[in-house]
Fold this protein.
Amino acid sequence: MEALLKTIEILGIFAFAITGIIEARRKQMDIIGTYSVAMVTAFGGGTLRDLLIAHYPLFWMQNYNYPIFILALSVFSIFILRKKESFSPSVVMLLGVLDALGLGLFSAVGTSYALSAGVYWFNAVLIGVITGVFGGVMRDVICNEVPVFFKQSQLYATCSFVGSLIFVILANYFPVESVFPLISCIAAAFILRIISIKYNIQLKF
Amino acid sequence: MEALLKTIEILGIFAFAITGIIEARRKQMDIIGTYSVAMVTAFGGGTLRDLLIAHYPLFWMQNYNYPIFILALSVFSIFILRKKESFSPSVVMLLGVLDALGLGLFSAVGTSYALSAGVYWFNAVLIGVITGVFGGVMRDVICNEVPVFFKQSQLYATCSFVGSLIFVILANYFPVESVFPLISCIAAAFILRIISIKYNIQLKF
Amino acid sequence: MEALLKTIEILGIFAFAITGIIEARRKQMDIIGTYSVAMVTAFGGGTLRDLLIAHYPLFWMQNYNYPIFILALSVFSIFILRKKESFSPSVVMLLGVLDALGLGLFSAVGTSYALSAGVYWFNAVLIGVITGVFGGVMRDVICNEVPVFFKQSQLYATCSFVGSLIFVILANYFPVESVFPLISCIAAAFILRIISIKYNIQLKF
């Protein structure tokens, strides 16, 4: 179970970092810029969450390997992305799946931390959403774009919101050590996200 | 007295959130984007202040109702702003008045917190200004604009600065429980702001 | 020794603030905007570092004079920059030298604080880099530019990285009170930066 969650988390960080790297390459940044954007995308949401609820030390300070992992990824990707400017549909789909998994997991973890810190339930849901989406917002701000999910969201933040809400509700009925709320949150956010991509559902009004 | 301050605070949050909503609608954001920008505009300044002086828990985590209030406002405004793209002069004036009240109150509260935390007086004034104006700066950064008050300020930050300075000076002569410094700060920032709008005073040089 | 470091620090803050002022003037900001950008450029990196490792009170809250010093600089510079839109080569070179000194010192101080806070060595190096370069990133984000050093870096962040890495390595072999790691970090970042400007070395690939 633990190993599964760890795997999903790493895949989520991987997917988030990759979206940062792709955006940085589009903006013709060099390796340092690429690494910075990848770091911000992968860790921005969790860092803001930790600052908001005074959760020290920050999660990526403790996970020594993550920053080095993303450095390796940035260096590696630069050689890959030199040759291939666009991706095959299957790669795009794989990235979307990883990203959706990461979104669900980050939301669940964020909500969980906020509840532990005694935050009011609605605000805990918001912190779940912040954890899930803020990295992408920062990526777009640094790359000088209007945050993409603000414009054509395909329910991105909404998936995070629904997942976090489910987590908060279930957390009332299950003991703290149960992983059921966590799994439900990830599953809800993931499935909703995949459906909204497939059918291009948007909240545009 | 307490009730009056609470009312002004809610009106200030209301006005700040509205300016965020209007800007988000201009950028054709969806409901999630609109809500996000409204939250950032209303709570950005106070959040940065709390982070800078390690004032935990953050003020909006304790005031459970504010985030829900802004959610309602965002949903509601989207229907209003669909039909009316521009505002009548009286609505613009009302928003300006609320915004000026909020600016004064946020500045006073920010300076007050900073002094309580033992911050040096000049830095306490700066934190008052940060509390008053940072939400608007964040709004403009997220919406990919050069912060509007940096360009054509009509004394926006200056009003906050003068109010905060008056607060710091008066705080030396009145007991902690006195509301006189608070009221003076709000009044000074408010009046200066209204005058500068009316006569279009700018510090452009 | 202390006096020398203090002098370098002030020169570094001076140089960073100046780059912010120049950028703000280019964007035709008024005095408040100029002061804000100068403050963010000079203190942004150190502030983020302090938030990330929960190092309170923030460094510029304790150094009362710095914000007032930058205020004076902003007011003063506005009169200077009115007349001279461009700079003579010797002024540009002087600014570059000061900036490189500041970059080295900020990196060293940031890494040093991070190590003291028990941060893992690679993350301490990253915090050194954040301290050195984040002020400039914030300057560019506020001024609505893609951060300049992400695009044409001339090894800017790399100099900070190398300096911080040298600091971490030497900190293992010298007692805490030794200034040798600090001096080595500053020297390495400074020399590498000057060389990379002179020969226009870039990591563009």
